Amino acid sequence: MNWYKKANTELVFENNHIDHYSEQNNYMLLAKDKNTMNPLGGIGYSEFQDEIYINYIEVKEEYKRMGIATALHKELQKINPNMKINWGMTTDEGESFKESLGRKNELV
Fold first, then answer.
1. What is the DSSP code (8-state) at residue 26?
2. Residue 67 gets which letter from DSSP?
3. What does the alpha-carbon distance between residue 83 and residue 4 come to, in Å, rounded to a whole number?
4. Residue 27 and residue 62: Cα distance in Å, rounded?
5. Where are the beta strands (DSSP E) in the chain?
6. Is 57 exposed, middle or buried (0-12, 13-18, 19+ CB in 10 A)?
7. What are phi and psi of 51, to 5 degrees?
8. How far is Cα 90 from Cα 71, in angstroms, rounded to an integer?
9. Taking the CB of the first residue and of the last residue of the chain, which one, N or C, has fewer CB atoms within 10 A?
10. What is the DSSP letter of 83?
């Protein structure tokens, strides 16, 4: 069970369009605590030629390993249902996260 469900707290998501270059749109998808509206984590991503490119995923240190990054990834898929998601380069921590989602050894 995810922390935010265990604590009887809901997440709300906010997808912000940051900027636009040529055919590329850049966004910040935030996960916020519904009660306080404080951001707990976010995914910075770009949309280009009908594909999503993850630039980074960040969760506040004190909220890591509580399902927030997973919830963000699911929301990203939900709001972009027909788009391929490219992971690009990842840190060791990012690789572990990808593996937890069942994307081990995925090149994109």
1. E
2. S
3. 28
4. 24
5. 11-21, 24-33, 39-48, 51-59, 84-86
6. buried
7. -135, 155
8. 19
9. N
10. S
Kindly report the average pLDDT of the chain as a whole number: 85
> Dihedrals φ, ψ of 57, to 5°?
-130, 130
Summarize pLDDT for 14-49 with one digit per residue, the tens: 999 999 999 999 999 999 999 999 999 999 999 999
Binned at pLDDT 50, 70 and 90, residue 72 comes out as: very high
Cα–Cα distance for residue pair 87/9, rounded to 1 Å: 29
Report strand pairing: 84-86 vs 24-33: unpaired
Give CA–CA dist 29/55, Å, rounded: 11
Phi, psi of 12 (to 5 degrees): -120, 150
Q: What is the pTM of this model?
A: 0.82
Distance CA 16, CA 11 (A): 16
In sequence order, what are the residues at sequence separation of 6 or more whose Cβ sits closer than 8 angstroms to the Cβ of residue 30?
A: 13, 14, 15, 16, 39, 41, 42
What pLDDT does 103 receive?
60
Structural domains in the chain, CATH included, are 3-100 (3.40.630.30)
